[in-house]
């Protein structure tokens, strides 16, 4: 699947103070969105800014906001409302008229699992019968 240049999305969510800066959630969301042909901008994939430690948050926000400005949509991870950075990104996205998506993990996972099941070949009849007898 090829990414569409008009299909750009920015991932926003809490990072500060979370284990691994919540990168696993950002990486998981990015992978799911890329499977759906989005061009993803994720702050979890940004390089470490070359600034003093006390300026790092501001430097990361500047990188993130400049990425957000190139997007058509924003994808909000759980807990974004408690994050000052993600809340600022949401506010900017809302004011710019970007499409706003909120993460619905269970719905995403269920949809992907059902799609994977639907694409698997059917079990031969004798295996299906054995599976039914064992349960």
TrEMBL record:
Highest taxon in the source lineage: Bacteria
The protein's name in its UniProt record: DUF4406 domain-containing protein
Species of origin: Comamonas avium
């Amino acid at each position: 699947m090829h990414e569409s240049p008009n299909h750009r999305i920015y991932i926003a969510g809490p990072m500060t103070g979370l284990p691994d800066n919540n990168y696993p959630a950002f990486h998981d969301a990015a992978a799911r969105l890329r499977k759906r042909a989005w061009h993803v901008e994720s702050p979890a994939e940004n390089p470490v800014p070359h600034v003093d430690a006390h300026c790092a948050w501001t430097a990361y926000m500047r990188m993130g906001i400049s990425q957000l400005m190139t997007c058509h949509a924003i994808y909000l991870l759980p807990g974004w409302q408690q994050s000052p950075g993600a809340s600022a990104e949401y506010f900017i996205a809302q004011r710019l008229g970007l499409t706003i998506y909120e993460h619905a993990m269970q719905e995403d996972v269920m949809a992907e699992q059902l799609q994977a099941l639907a694409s698997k070949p059917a079990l031969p009849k004798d295996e299906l019968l054995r599976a039914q007898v064992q349960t």
